[in-house]
Amino acid sequence: MSQFSKGFALGALVLSLAGCGGGSDSSPAIVPPIVAPLPTFKVQDDPVNTSTMALSVAESFIQVGTFANSIIKQASFNDLGIDKSCTNGGISTRTINDIDGSNTISAADVISMDYRDCYIPSLDSTISGVVAVKVVSLNSDDGKTLTEVNLSDVEFDGETLLQFKGILGTEIQKFAVSQKTTVKNIGNVSLIVDRNADLKMNFVNTAITRSEQFSDATYSISGAGKIELPVAAVSFSFAFKEPLVGHFSEYPHKGLMHVFTSNTDIVETSSNFVTNSESMNVKSGSDIYSISWSYAVEGSLWWFSGSVNNYVNAYRSDNFDFVGVLNSDLLTEFPASGGSVQFLMSRPVKSGTYTTTFNTTNWPYHRVDATVSVAGAIVSITPKTPLAAGREYEIDSFELISTQDVARYVYRVTGINVNDAILINLDKGTGLYQADDFPTLDASKSVMNKGKKLNFKWIDVNNVGLVFANKSASKTTFSAPAGHANDISVRLEIDNGQGYVISSDFTIKYFTPSSTVLHFVSSMGDYIGGGQTQTFDTSDSSFTVFSNGAEQRDYISVGINSNTWWNLDLAAPKGESLAVKKYENATRYPFQSPVTAGLSFTGGGRGCNNSLGSFEILELVYDANNNVEKLAVNFQQSCENTNPLLIGLLRVNSSAKLN
Predict the structure, then answer these.
(1) Which helix (H) or strand (E) holds 571?
(2) Among 480, 588, 610, 611, which is most exposed with the fewest C-beta within 10 angstroms?
(3) Residue 395 CB burial class (10 angstroms; 0-12, 13-18, ≥19)
(4) pTM for the full model?
């Protein structure tokens, strides 16, 4: 909690405005004199305190959202009820009310953390008490996780003892290269000072959003709210008229906030660009005050994903620094092959050739050359050959150059621990089947980091009569009994010949034959599909096909209108017509080069900045009016050229097989 949430401003403002008095019960009764009413409170009478208090409230809400997100990310069923040490030596204990008994975190589950003098970095405070986080929804179709956080039993032991009474709602939405956190009050929420119910701050209709854009390493803060100090009969509102914007680990260099009680009583708080960017401007009428950002907030506004940095820079356009590891969760279980470490820089990186290596940290030493790819401010480092299982690596220091031609050495990142388990890599094709149309199951790219030999076993989970071409091969086909028209459950078991066995259950969905369908499988981390598998046909969607068939026949666009809108654009290289063939190395339509094909699959308002993929046209028929009569196409797309794949198929009035 920032210093003002701890009671600094609250105490100064509440106590200074509270004209509380009292008398003895034995005093004689007297007739009170007629007293003129107190003047109406104006923020312009106390512009600095009201402005810094509003910023403090905004930061505290964001801190709670970051805290709740970390509780969900770290939730595990393996250590329930076990005391764990906190970084400062305190104790925390986790319990989970698993509503559906699934033994996995899902909607309606409640994660409770009992803290005893635990320092929480995201709150910058030592806390004691039980925090209850109720999961309202988890990783929904649009990538949102909603929670309700109850901090009523918690005491924050800072400069002043605080209690947050009530429930805050959080919404975390993750995209491929961005993240958005929104925190709002649900019902009555108050901050109480020193257990004194009279000394409290109420939050009314308060909602704060922090957006993180990793592609250019910026954050922005928006929202509005109302603050009430009942003991002083004071209330005022605040709103970000322009979002506070800055680069990670830097003070904001854009933004405007209003604190007000009416249209005529307004205090403006704004950022500075370069000169005095470490300070904000508080304007009240003709008076302007210069206040240090660090006086109002602790830094949660500009930290990268809520992590604590030890420094903050004043804004300069030529700043260029290493911010942190974007996918730090991967470092403790890094795959032997196929993994990348994503660095986040404070400015976009200039395209060029950069080199580094993965090096083991102890003997016997192992050195692996790495590929370094750049996408805006994100730098992905990928080993060119598999790392050794069970070893710890570091990425060697190397130089990067910003788009402003500023050079910066990124010093080694340590603690990359390579997983030594079997890593299942399963390709189930479209994941759909029809009569006489079954996908091939391929686990041949699974990785054995330690062991003698990978052994495979395909199992018909529900004993419906599946027939596998080879039950013990890494790659197989199968068939179902004639007339079986239900989803199929399959289990893949893999062992390493040394007693270590891992299994994965998956479903192949039965698809009622339809000549017009869109189906896609989105890998986790894919921005467009959000890691979901979805199927649409004419029973729930409308399909609209456009082409320039009367001209060159080199372009087709198909729109699918369901509960959201999806669109597939296909274009042939310049001078060619679309034909029944496979088009490799297709880039984002309509920005492809003249010699390559164009491809763009978008939906739900999401699109790629850059993309790389391919598509294969299996059937393409035009009618007498040059309209597309039949179309069958399979496609795959990677946003920003390096993100996980989205694999899809589209059929329009086509009998082409799905697999």
Answers:
(1) strand 565-571
(2) 610
(3) buried
(4) 0.65
